[in-house]
Specification:
395 residues, alpha/beta, two-stranded antiparallel sheet, 14% strand, globular
Length: 395
Amino acid sequence: MKHTAAPFTTPKYVMAKPAGPLCNLDCKYCYYTEKSALLGKSAKLMHMSDELLEEYIRQYIAIQPGAVLFTWHGGEPLLRSRDFYEKVLTLQRKYANGKQIDNSIQTNGTLITDDWAKFLVDNHFLVGVSIDGPQDLHDTYRLSRSGQSSWSQVMQGIEILNKHKVEWNAMAVVTHDTSQRPLDFYNFFRKIDCNYIQFTPVVERLKAHDDGRHLASPIDQEGVQMAPYSVTPKGWGTFLCAVFDEWLKHDLGQRFVQIFESTLAGWVGVPPGLCTMAPVCGHAAVMECNGDVYSCDHFVFPEFKLGNIADVPLSEMFKSPRQVAFGANKAKRLTAACKRCQWLSLCHGECPRNRFAYSVDGEPGHNYLCEGYKMFFEHSANFMQEEKRFILANQ
């Protein structure tokens, strides 16, 4: 997403879940709705309390040295009423202490109304909308709880956002199906005049848990299998190369594709907009609706729980040996093949959650998507080198 304050360059970043993992959709690849098993609560109780909300806002603002970015995520955060977000704004003003406060919200787009859009634009919310391209691709996995299409509702939500001039960005996942049709996928966003796009590869492994969860933890190695909707390494690479060529031909300088911008950042030597491509991590945690804090949004598993803000301040959780080690391990646990790779400065081994493959040397802990990233980095290298020379010459 495009943010006033970039989330992966701010010192500490927390993604908050005001409605927990509750959602009105039943996306088949979703990594979050099953987290309700960790909360042990009924649906009606999976709402962040007013007391917790105030404590979170107070603590979160206090740990920031400058501008503060709040991100409201889910599940579906628009399951909370506008009254809830009015309280958010009131509390942010109460504890701002002169700091600039920005808000972003990630939504599936189906609940957006004129009233919501007016509230979002009046209060300068940046909106991320999850949409997976043209209807047949989108509806492959993003269905309602009754198994119905959600695409028309999302498109209606986008039209309402555009009508009210709400700033929004597309958050689109790349599944195995999507990777087979890269131009259909990308050209859809061009047709709806979407200027800010984030592509996220779906990589999930399945493993049954006693509490009903079915997704494997990043540390699980036995009894796991790849989810059928996961993009393959080669599929990810061919997808990126095809979309890059189309973007370069038609949209250079006009359309922001986050992974392309983050790759260029690596060439130039500045922080990327994607935490997955940064050299270290550990500064971007997630807080559930009950105040439980985990190391990262993709590491919401019991073994990565840092504590609860009612018992341990956010400032202490970020400084805890566990979280410091979590962040440092991204660089510390690179495979030998990764360390000698010519593209290391661009991806830094990508996200640790995807490091369950074996390297060419047979070493465990290698990134599953490595082959695809290598394809893309090599394919885009000439352009990136030219852009780097231009940028450095004009500094």
